[in-house]
């Protein structure tokens, strides 16, 4: 189905080799339906690790959080993961098409879902609300601290 393509139109993919997975195989009717978008997402997700910091673009804002595109994969930045301070209105803090740094805190390649956080990138409570530049400047450092803390919990 065209809804399962990662390209805007079928003309954009003519002549290309595409990663796909079978959605339906009906031998009796000699019918096969392939899924392209999911295969692409799984391939891209293989390069994402928990604790990894990435630059993303806010694509959609909902009352419960924001959907952020990270290299063609949409992840959820839940309202509770934006800042250590309480927040009531995501739209008052983030804008569609805004670039932000986020950290991957969970990914489920089976379901194609990624959970993101900016809260864990804050050096102090409410940096995402009061001074985002600090979060941007120190994101990788804070991401590394988060990863080390997670590894220590496993030991």
User: Within the largest sheet, what's the order of strands?
Assistant: 3-4-5-7-6
Major sheet characteristics: 5 strands, mixed, barrel
Low-confidence stretches: none
Give the helix tally. Answer: 3
Portion of residues in beta strands equals 25-35%
Q: Could you give the count of β-strands?
A: 7
- Principal-axes geometry comes out as elongated
Q: List SSEs in N-to-C order.
A: EEHEEEEEHH
Structural class: alpha+beta
Overall pLDDT, averaged? 82
Separation of the first and last Cα atoms: 46 Å
| CA-based gyration radius | 18 Å
Task: Summarize the amount of helix as a percent range.
Answer: 10-25%
How would you describe this structure to a colleague?
- The chain has 155 residues and is α+β, with helices and mostly antiparallel strands.
- The strands form 2 sheets. The protein has a 5-stranded mixed barrel. Strands 1-2 form a two-stranded antiparallel sheet.
- The termini are far apart.
- A hairpin with a 4-residue loop joins strand 6 (99-108) and strand 7.
- It has helices at residues 37-45, 127-130, 132-154, and strands spanning 21-26, 31-35, 53-62, 65-70, 73-78, 99-108, 113-117.
- The model has no long low-confidence stretch (mean pLDDT 82).
């Amino acid at each position: 189905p065209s809804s399962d393509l990662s390209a805007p139109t079928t003309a954009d993919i003519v002549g290309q080799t595409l990663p796909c997975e079978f959605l339906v195989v009906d031998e009796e009717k000699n019918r096969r339906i392939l899924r392209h978008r999911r295969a692409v997402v799984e391939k891209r997700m293989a390069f994402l690790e928990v604790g990894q910091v990435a630059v993303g673009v806010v694509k959609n804002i909902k009352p419960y959080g924001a959907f952020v595109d990270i290299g063609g994969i949409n992840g959820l930045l839940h309202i509770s993961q934006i800042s250590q301070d309480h927040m009531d209105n995501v739209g008052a803090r983030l804008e569609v098409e805004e670039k932000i740094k986020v950290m991957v805190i969970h990914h489920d390649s089976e379901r194609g879902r990624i959970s993101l956080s900016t809260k864990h990138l804050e050096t102090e409570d409410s940096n995402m609300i009061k001074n985002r530049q600090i979060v941007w400047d120190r994101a990788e450092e804070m991401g590394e601290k988060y990863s080390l803390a997670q590894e220590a919990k496993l030991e």
